[in-house]
Amino acid sequence: MATAASTRLIAELDDVIELGTAARRGQILRKVTDLFRADVDRLEETQTKVFDEVFVRLIERVDTPALAQLSATLSEFDMAPSETVRQLAFHDDASVAAPMLAKSNCLPEQHLIEIANTLSQQHLLAISTRKTLDERLTDALIRRGDVHVTNALARNGGARFSECGYATLVGRAERDESLTEKLGLRLDIPARVLRELLAMATDAVRARFLTAKRPVLHEQSPAP
Length: 224
Description:
Elements: H1 3-19, H2 22-39, H3 45-59, H4 64-74, H5 82-89, H6 94-103, H7 109-118, H8 121-128, H9 135-144, H10 147-155, H11 163-173, H12 177-184, H13 191-200, H14 203-211, H15 215-220
Helix pairs in contact: 1-2, 2-3, 2-4, 3-5, 4-6, 5-6, 6-8, 7-9, 8-10, 9-11, 10-12, 11-12, 12-14
């Protein structure tokens, strides 16, 4: 780690927070982020905690675009400062939270469930695009999610649904042809659920079931 550089940046921090302009605070945030990104593979736990403290102190003092960029950058790392990750993920502005919610491997599932139970539809939509989602999390998303969230879940081949989750989705599909179609094309859909969908589907939707591409199948099929 570039110890001298990090020491200088941390020493500047209090003066920047108290006396610096918004532009200057943003500049310091970018420098700290670049330093973290350059050394992340070599950081020890105590050093990561220093970065965590610095990021947290800056989060309250920089503008939304700067926070959104920080969130996008840190969401790519499998090891990121834990309190910084938590504050970004729980941020009220979905443009800040979304990168963490969609990509970060550093968020405990319980945090994701809490966010699904409390924050906005934009937050839920971001979670719905994660690479994998287990049944507890999809249950929480389905309970509160709007039509955009449920369609995103149905389209997500990495999402897994409980019996209750599938039942709720089928109920909503009665009023949403797009959801009916997405559910019908899932490879993991139980036969009973598929029969229910086919029974309620219009002729046009049934025809699309037969002709639509199945991207989940293509992704999961073994190579010839």
